[in-house]
Specification:
Layout (H helix, E strand, L loop, with lengths): L8 E4 L5 H12 L3 E6 L17 H13 L10 E3 L2 H12 L4 H26 L3 E5 L7 H8 L2 E5 L5 H14 L15 H17 L2 E4 L2 H9 L7 E3 L21 E6 L8 H11 L4 E6 L17 E4 L6 H7 L2 E4 L8 H8 L4 E3 L13 E3 L5 H13 L1 H16 L3 H21 L1
Helix pairs in contact: 1-14, 3-4, 4-5, 9-12, 11-13
Length: 428
C-alpha cells in the first residue's frame, strides 16, 4: 500500500539491470511504488519450472535466467510484465545474423511497443511520478507524462551519445584491427545507433530530473547545456555481503590481475592486452572472465599470454574476485560499471579509466588512467604488482570505499530525488 502523502511512482525498465530492480525495491519499501512495468519477470519463484523436462544444460540455463529476473523486495503484485519484449529480443538476435533489415525492424518494433506499454500504464494509473530508464519512453511514455502533469525522472544507464560517436571515430582510425570487435559478436549498426542516440537526446528533453551514475557523465551532459540543477549524480553499488575480501589472503610478489566483462573493444581490451605484454613476468597472471567473440580476429595473437576463464556466473563471481589481487577495467564507454563496485567490495585495488564511471579514488583504492593510454595503464599495473605494501593498503581502502556505496544508499538517493521533485511542485 502507498503511504499517505508519499508520491505514487511508476517505474519503466524492460531488462534486469540491478539499478532498476534496486530502485523498485527501495520505492516499495518506502511505500511509494505504484507499479513496475518491465519485460519478463519471475512472479512465481516457488513454482516448479516446466523447463525441468529440458536437457540439464538447458534446464540450468533457464533457471539461471529466472533467477536474474527476480529481486528480493519487489512485490510481485505491483509488477506488470510484458514478456513479448524478450521474445522479440530473441528473434532479433537470431534473425540479425542473416539480415540487418530484419534486425533493425524487430529492434524498433520491440522498443516502440514497450514505449506504448509504459505510456498506457501511465495513462491508466496517472501516478505522481514516473521513473523511466534510458531508451524506453522517448516517443510515447515521457511525452504522455508531460501531457498529464506527471513528474518525470530519467535513469541514465549509459555514457553520453556524442562521446560514443567521437570515440567510435577515433577507434576506427587508431585501432582498425580491433574496431570490428567493438561490440564483440554484436554487430555495430551505425544506422541503428543513430536512431538510439536520437532517442536518448529526446529522453533528456522530456525529463524533469536526470539521474546519472557518475560525475564523468554529469560533466558530459553539462557540456551539452543540460542545466546542472536537473542532474543528480547517484552512483551504483555492490552487494557488500555477497562480494567480500578473502580473510586469509596474503600479499606477496605473485599477483593475479583480473578483468571481468564482455571481451570487447568497448571495454578497452586491445589496450589492456598491449599493456599486459609490456609488464607480464613470472608469478603474475592476467585472468579474463567473460565471453570471447566467436570470431577472435586479433585477439588470437594475445590469448596464449593470458588465462582465459570464460563466462563466470553470478554465483561464482564473488569467489573469483576474492582470489584475485588487482582488478583492471580500462573501458572506453560505460554508464557506471557495477563490476567495478563489486571488485572494490572484494578488496581489489582497481585500475580503471574515468570512462568506466567508477567511484575509485586515484592513488587511494586504485588508479585512474586515461582511456587508450597503454603506457599509463602498464605503469599502474606494474606499480601494484611490484609494491606489495601499496597493494595491501589499496585493498583495505577498496573495501572501505565499497561500504560507502551499498544498495540501500542508492535506494535512498533515488527516493530523495523523487521527494525533492514533489517538494518543488508543492512550493510552486
Amino acid at each position: 500500500m502507498n503511504r499517505p502523502h508519499e508520491s505514487r511512482v511508476l517505474v519503466g525498465c524492460p531488462d534486469a539491470r540491478p539499478p532498476a530492480y534496486q530502485a523498485v525495491a527501495g520505492l516499495a519499501a518506502a511505500g511509494m511504488l505504484d507499479r513496475f512495468v518491465t519485460a519478463y519477470y519471475d512472479t512465481q519463484p516457488d513454482r516448479t519450472s516446466s523447463a525441468r523436462l529440458l536437457p540439464e544444460p538447458l534446464h540450468a540455463r533457464w533457471n539461471a535466467r529466472r533467477a536474474r529476473r527476480r529481486c528480493t523486495g519487489i512485490p510481485v503484485e505491483r509488477v506488470e510484465p510484458h514478456p513479448s519484449y524478450d521474445v522479440a529480443l530473441s528473434l532479433e538476435n537470431m534473425l540479425g545474423r542473416f539480415s540487418g533489415v530484419a534486425r533493425r525492424a524487430i529492434a524498433r518494433a520491440r522498443t516502440d511497443r514497450f514505449d506504448r506499454d509504459v505510456r498506457r500504464a501511465v495513462e491508466r494509473t496517472e501516478p505522481d511520478c514516473a521513473l523511466i530508464f534510458s531508451d524506453v519512453g522517448s516517443d510515447e511514455a515521457l511525452p504522455a507524462c508531460r501531457r498529464l502533469g506527471v513528474a518525470t525522472v530519467l535513469g541514465v544507464v549509459h555514457g553520453d551519445v556524442d562521446e560514443e560517436r567521437s570515440l567510435l571515430a577515433v577507434e576506427a582510425e587508431v585501432a582498425p584491427d580491433f574496431f570490428p570487435l567493438y561490440l564483440g559478436d554484436g554487430r555495430l549498426d551505425l544506422r541503428e545507433l543513430d536512431r538510439l542516440h536520437d532517442r536518448r537526446r529526446r529522453d533528456l528533453e522530456h525529463a524533469d530530473v536526470v539521474l546519472v551514475p557518475s560525475e564523468h557523465i554529469a560533466k558530459q551532459l553539462e557540456n551539452k547545456r543540460v542545466d546542472r540543477s536537473r542532474i543528480r549524480v547517484v552512483p551504483y553499488a555492490a552487494d557488500v555481503d555477497k562480494f567480500r575480501p578473502d580473510p586469509d589472503k596474503t600479499f606477496t610478489q605473485t599477483c593475479t590481475f583480473l578483468f571481468a566483462g564482455a571481451i570487447t573493444q568497448r571495454k578497452g581490451i586491445k589496450y589492456l592486452l598491449e599493456a599486459w605484454r609490456k609488464v607480464r613476468r613470472p608469478g603474475w597472471r592476467l585472468q579474463l572472465a567473460g565471453a570471447l567473440p566467436q570470431t577472435l580476429g586479433p585477439l588470437r595473437n594475445y590469448l596464449d599470454e593470458v588465462e582465459y576463464v570464460g563466462r563466470v556466473g553470478s554465483r561464482e563471481m564473488p569467489a573469483l574476485m576474492a582470489k584475485a589481487d588487482v582488478f583492471v577495467f580500462p573501458s572506453l564507454f560505460e554508464g557506471s560499471a557495477v563490476v567495478t563496485y563489486e571488485a572494490l567490495a572484494s578488496g581489489l585495488p582497481c585500475v580503471v579509466t574515468p570512462n568506466a564511471g567508477s567511484v575509485v579514488r586515484d592513488g587511494v583504492d586504485g588508479f585512474l588512467v586515461p582511456a587508450r593510454d597503454v603506457d599509463a595503464l602498464a605503469a599502474r599495473i606494474e606499480s601494484l604488482g611490484r609494491d606489495v605494501d601499496l597493494r595491501a593498503a589499496a585493498s583495505r581502502a577498496a573495501r572501505l570505499r565499497a561500504l560507502e556505496f551499498d544498495w540501500p544508499r542508492y535506494q535512498a538517493a533515488v527516493i530523495d530525488a523523487i521527494r525533492q521533485i514533489k517538494a518543488r511542485r508543492v512550493a510552486a
